[in-house]
Amino acid sequence: MKAKKSKVVLYLKKAVSTSRVKLLLWKESISTIP
Known about the structure:
About 90% of the residues lie in helices and about 0% in strands. It has about 35 residues and is an all-alpha fold.
């Protein structure tokens, strides 16, 4: 049970970090478009 929970936490952390990167890339792409 404990191992499963930690796996979920890792997955959530990964999802948050990837969405954060996507958001940054999205903002950058908007700022580069004149």
